[in-house]
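Homework help board

Subject: predicted structure for assignment chain

Our instructor gave us this sequence and asked us to write out the predicted structure in token form, then describe one feature. I got the tokens but I'm not sure how to describe them. Can anyone check?
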Amino acid sequence: KMSLFAILGASSLFNTAKIIQREFFGGAVDDVMSEKLAERMLKIVNGELLAMAFIPLMATLMSRGIGYDESIPWQIGAGVTGFLFVGLGGKYLVEAFTWKEDV
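My token output:
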């Protein structure tokens, strides 16, 4: 569940960075977004919605103890979640800042 939340948060960084970049550094507000950028943002939003739909399912499974293993310390699970957020967050931010619009 926490890994899905990390993926959800990290993936939203691309859309947030592009919106802020276009608003404050992009020039005129009336500029039309390229089809390529719009498709990429739509794919990310669809992925976020999919992750959001699975979070309650994962919470239900967690509450019933499905997939729980006492031999794995909780720090490993927290580390995986942190690694996912930092790794994917960095990937999406680099992609957002190096994106080239098709003009």
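Reply (TA_rk): Your tokens look well-formed. For the description, you could write something like this. The chain has a mean pLDDT of 86. That's the kind of observation they're looking for.
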